[in-house]
């Protein structure tokens, strides 16, 4: 069978996007999803996303990690799916769609950047030298100096596979305050089991962690694959109107035999 796909990237976090409004994709086929994401034996991507119709909203996003398994929320994937849905005519200026963690609103600005509303962070835990929370996906956040020089793969892997996290896994973010109101974030991603060039839910968790230490909205964030921004309002420790903002681009279209 020949499948049409579109390759997208959002700040270097890259995805295979499939228009599955006819619901033909076998979401149980972990091996196929993983093979398509493989950078040597497949198309190559950090994840695979199905765009499906939804009875109440403009579309539904179903996200799989590069290991082929159904994932939790993906912020950059969400931004790319919004762009893809726009090319399919699923909405004009603003949209509401369904994802693993529920309802999301989004709109495109005049520069074509996607403003994706994230759900408020859940289960925020503050330890001696870390934060841990759920921004649609679980994120461990560690502040550090000289993040550019860290071995993110080895350090991230050691946290992701420690006794606490090895069963369910976690994403691990290394965060540097590079200015009074600016962050640099590098992320080890669960499900990819490597550093990726950017992680939207991870950047969101990093900004929330910085905000809990006094950082003000909006916060520009440098990632390996570009620049993101997170804006929010904070009322008595609760975060509302949380937006992940950044570019999302179609890279190429193709066909693959499965
Ligand atoms: N890259 C994604 C995160 C995917 C989360 C996934 N790696 C997991 O928690 O299993 C993002 O932009 O938010």
TrEMBL record:
<feature type="binding site">
    <location>
        <position position="171"/>
    </location>
    <ligand>
        <name>substrate</name>
    </ligand>
</feature>
<comment type="similarity">
    <text>Belongs to the diaminopimelate epimerase family.</text>
</comment>
<feature type="binding site">
    <location>
        <begin position="189"/>
        <end position="190"/>
    </location>
    <ligand>
        <name>substrate</name>
    </ligand>
</feature>
<keyword id="KW-0963">Cytoplasm</keyword>
<keyword id="KW-0028">Amino-acid biosynthesis</keyword>
<feature type="active site" description="Proton donor">
    <location>
        <position position="74"/>
    </location>
</feature>
<dbReference type="Pfam" id="PF01678">
    <property type="entry name" value="DAP_epimerase"/>
</dbReference>
<dbReference type="GO" id="GO:0005829">
    <property type="term" value="C:cytosol"/>
</dbReference>
<keyword id="KW-0457">Lysine biosynthesis</keyword>
<feature type="binding site">
    <location>
        <position position="65"/>
    </location>
    <ligand>
        <name>substrate</name>
    </ligand>
</feature>
<feature type="active site" description="Proton acceptor">
    <location>
        <position position="199"/>
    </location>
</feature>
<dbReference type="InterPro" id="IPR001653">
    <property type="entry name" value="DAP_epimerase_DapF"/>
</dbReference>
<comment type="pathway">
    <text>Amino-acid biosynthesis; L-lysine biosynthesis via DAP pathway; DL-2,6-diaminopimelate from LL-2,6-diaminopimelate: step 1/1.</text>
</comment>
<keyword id="KW-0413">Isomerase</keyword>
<feature type="site" description="Could be important to modulate the pK values of the two catalytic cysteine residues">
    <location>
        <position position="139"/>
    </location>
</feature>
<protein>
    <recommendedName>
        <fullName>Diaminopimelate epimerase</fullName>
        <ecNumber>5.1.1.7</ecNumber>
    </recommendedName>
</protein>
<feature type="site" description="Could be important to modulate the pK values of the two catalytic cysteine residues">
    <location>
        <position position="189"/>
    </location>
</feature>
<dbReference type="GO" id="GO:0009089">
    <property type="term" value="P:lysine biosynthetic process via diaminopimelate"/>
</dbReference>
<dbReference type="GO" id="GO:0008837">
    <property type="term" value="F:diaminopimelate epimerase activity"/>
</dbReference>
<feature type="binding site">
    <location>
        <position position="13"/>
    </location>
    <ligand>
        <name>substrate</name>
    </ligand>
</feature>
<feature type="binding site">
    <location>
        <begin position="75"/>
        <end position="76"/>
    </location>
    <ligand>
        <name>substrate</name>
    </ligand>
</feature>
<comment type="subunit">
    <text>Homodimer.</text>
</comment>
<feature type="binding site">
    <location>
        <begin position="200"/>
        <end position="201"/>
    </location>
    <ligand>
        <name>substrate</name>
    </ligand>
</feature>
<comment type="function">
    <text>Catalyzes the stereoinversion of LL-2,6-diaminopimelate (L,L-DAP) to meso-diaminopimelate (meso-DAP), a precursor of L-lysine and an essential component of the bacterial peptidoglycan.</text>
</comment>
């Amino acid at each position: 069978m020949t499948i049409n796909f579109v390759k997208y990237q959002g700040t270097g976090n890259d995805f295979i996007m499939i228009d599955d409004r006819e619901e033909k994709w076998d979401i149980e086929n972990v091996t196929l999803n993983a093979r398509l994401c493989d950078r040597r034996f497949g198309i190559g991507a950090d994840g695979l996303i199905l765009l499906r119709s939804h009875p109440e909203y403009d579309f539904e996003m179903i996200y799989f990690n590069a290991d082929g398994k159904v994932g939790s929320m993906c912020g950059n994937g969400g931004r790319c799916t919004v762009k893809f849905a726009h090319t399919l005519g699923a909405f004009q200026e603003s949209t509401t769609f369904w994802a693993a963690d529920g309802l999301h609103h989004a709109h495109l600005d005049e520069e074509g950047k996607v403003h994706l509303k994230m759900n408020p962070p859940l289960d925020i835990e503050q330890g001696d030298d870390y934060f841990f929370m759920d921004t649609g996906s679980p994120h461990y956040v560690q502040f550090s100096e000289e993040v550019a020089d860290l071995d993110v793969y080895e350090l991230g892997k050691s946290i992701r596979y420690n006794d606490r996290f090895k069963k369910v896994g976690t994403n691990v973010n290394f965060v540097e305050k590079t200015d009074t109101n600016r962050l640099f974030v590098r992320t080890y991603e669960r499900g990819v089991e490597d550093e990726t060039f950017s992680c939207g839910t991870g950047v969101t968790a990093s900004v929330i962690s910085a905000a809990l230490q006094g950082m003000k909205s909006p916060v520009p964030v440098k990632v390996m694959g570009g620049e993101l921004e997170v804006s929010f309002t904070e009322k008595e420790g609760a975060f509302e109107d949380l937006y992940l903002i950044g570019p999302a681009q179609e890279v190429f279209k193709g066909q693959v035999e499965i």
